[in-house]
Write a structure and sequence with these properties.
The complex is a heterodimer of chains A (119) and B (186). Chain A is built from four helices and three strands. Chain A is 40% helix and 15% strand. By secondary structure, chain A is of the alpha+beta class. Chain A starts with 32 loop residues before the first helix and ends with a strand. Chain B has 186 residues and is mostly helical. Chain B contains seven helices and three strands. In chain B, a hairpin with a 2-residue loop joins strand 1 and strand 2. The model of chain B has no long low-confidence stretch (mean pLDDT 91). Classes of the chains: A alpha+beta (119), B mainly alpha (186). The interface between A and B is large, with 46 and 61 residues.
């Protein structure tokens, strides 16, 4: 069946917590001025977590094809995921972060979003 | 014997034997069934039509949980994200699996870049499911399974599944190498 080349990422997945329901994103009319400023100003990070299944070549491809990152940057991010357990692959608005997380889940990568500076 | 995928002027081309096609199509179809949203007895037909979901619980099946992971360490945020995206994520994955299954009907299999991306997602989802069934949670687990490469020597369902996992991993690796060549060199 040919040469096997299945270098995979190793495991340090985030702990799964019990999920409870949440309120939807507040509508602009209900958002106080303070919250509006926070939502706009505080950047959000998209984090990709390590796992022992996704191929390194696949992760590099996703970072290049989805984000348009150059090969060197995509490889550096992939290696950071691999060696440090997680890597911040994008920083931007909440809406952008949510869109990227959804796309990365579509690719089968374990991605989360969080406020910048939280971790 | 499969030859893996190669980038050619016509597109990304793969050649498969009939049993390999049947195996891949079965895997794609099984993963698609795993991803089908569970029917809700009390759901309003209009809500179903527009894709509105009330609370969507985190899947209990570990394989599904890996394909549909929590989007945040904040439970409220993760639940809200799941409510808004669970259905479309499942549908996107199922569509890619179906398209990939259909692409296997041709001999040889010739994929555009977009079709190849769908194929890569599908192979990856198959691997996530198999890895979950094989309990691959660490690099050591992955090494244990990586040794299983011969269908003729598989002596149990688990060993057979391990050989399948390695076959799909190898195939995905050839596809990724072909896809990486479609990107601008830089």
């Amino acid at each position: 069946m040919g040469t096997m080349s299945t270098t995979a990422l190793t495991a340090h997945a985030p702990a799964c917590t019990v999920l409870v329901s949440a309120a939807p994103a507040e509508s602009p009319a209900l958002t106080t001025e303070e919250e509006a400023v926070t939502a706009v100003d505080v950047p959000w990070n998209v984090v990709v977590w390590d796992d022992p299944v996704n191929l390194m070549s696949y992760v590099v491809y996703v970072f290049r094809a989805h984000f348009g990152y150059p090969d060197a940057k995509a490889r550096a991010l992939m290696l950071e995921v691999h060696h440090r357990g997680r890597s911040i692959v994008f920083t931007g608005t909440l809406e952008e972060a949510e869109t990227h997380v959804s796309a990365l889940h579509g690719y089968g990568l374990w991605a989360t979003y969080e406020k910048a500076g939280e971790n | 014997m499969a030859h893996g995928f190669k980038r050619t002027r016509k597109g990304i081309v793969g050649r498969f034997e009939a049993p390999e096609v049947r195996l891949l199509q079965k895997l794609f179809s099984d993963v698609g069934e795993t991803l089908a949203p569970e029917p809700r007895e009390e759901q309003d037909p209009l809500e179903a039509l527009v894709g509105w979901d009330e609370d969507v619980p985190e899947p209990t099946d570990p394989a599904l949980r890996r394909m549909l992971p929590p989007a945040s360490s904040d439970p409220e945020q993760a639940a809200e994200f799941r409510r808004l995206t669970d259905r479309s994520l499942r549908e996107r994955k199922i569509a890619a699996l179906r398209a990939s299954s259909l692409a296997l009907e041709s001999e040889p299999v010739v994929l555009t870049t977009e079709q190849a991306q769908d194929f890569a997602r599908s192979l990856n989802d198959v691997r996530l499911v198999l890895a979950s069934r094989l309990r691959i949670d660490s690099p050591e687990d992955a090494e244990r399974v990586a040794e299983l490469t011969d269908f003729g020597k598989a002596e149990s369902v688990e060993q057979y599944m391990g050989v399948v996992y390695n076959f799909v991993s190898w195939l995905q690796e050839t596809l990724m190498n072909a896809l990486l060549k479609t990107l601008p060199a830089r």
